[in-house]
């Protein structure tokens, strides 16, 4: 499959005015490899899920003015966060997820987190390759789900 590179990827915090664009992106979103049931397919559940993310750090990636991807960084405890990243199928393999993860890494550093965890479907080989390339390490895996961790300040002793 050919790899297309976006000319310019703008990553910035999601704001209230972006909410309709976000809902539209997810209304036409096609998950890869199961995506562990997220985003929810049903509109009312999807809206409730998006509302539950509002207290977290939400970043949006835009390509040529179009919302291409969304990342949420949720605080797990004082030194850890969990990352969720979704790229619309029209923009995959263009560096969107990498750009979002770079911005999230910087925000996590500023917040003083030690690590970022992400959970993926084990069958999502693209996510697995991207996480390893970015520097995430596998922590555990079963038949359906895997956890990867990015150590911001290095491993605890």
Overall description:
With 157 residues, the protein is an alpha+beta fold. Helix content is 29%, strand content 32%. It has a seven-stranded mixed beta sheet with strand order 1-2-3-4-5-7-6, sandwiched between helices. The protein is globular, with a radius of gyration of 15 Å.
Which labels suit this protein?
single chain; 157 residues; alpha+beta; seven-stranded mixed beta sheet
Q: How big a fraction of the residues is strand?
A: 25-35%
Output the helix-strand order.
EHHEEEHEHEE
Mean pLDDT over the residues: 87
Radius of gyration (Å): 15 Å
Separation, N- and C-terminal Cα atoms: 42 Å
Strand arrangement, largest sheet?
1-2-3-4-5-7-6
Shape: globular
Question: What structural class is derived from the secondary structure elements?
Answer: alpha+beta
**Low-confidence stretches at least 5 residues in length (pLDDT < 50)?**
none
Helical content class = 25-40%
Secondary structure tally, helices: 4
Strand element count:
7
- Biggest β-sheet, characterized? 7 strands, mixed
């Amino acid at each position: 499959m050919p790899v297309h590179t976006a000319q310019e990827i703008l990553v910035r915090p999601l704001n209230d005015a972006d909410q309709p664009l976000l809902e539209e992106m997810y209304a036409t979103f096609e998950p890869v490899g199961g995506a562990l049931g997220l985003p929810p397919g049903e509109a009312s559940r999807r809206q409730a899920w998006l509302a539950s993310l509002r207290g977290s750090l939400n970043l949006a990636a835009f390509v040529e003015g179009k919302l291409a991807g969304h990342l949420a960084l949720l605080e797990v405890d004082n030194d850890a966060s969990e990352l969720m990243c979704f790229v619309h199928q029209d923009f995959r393999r263009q560096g969107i997820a990498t750009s979002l993860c770079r911005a999230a890494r910087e925000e996590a550093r500023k917040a003083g987190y030690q690590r970022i965890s992400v959970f993926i479907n084990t069958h999502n080989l693209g996510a697995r390759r991207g996480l390893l390339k970015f520097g995430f390490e596998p922590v555990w895996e079963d038949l359906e789900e895997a956890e990867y961790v990015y150590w911001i300040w290095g491993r605890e002793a």
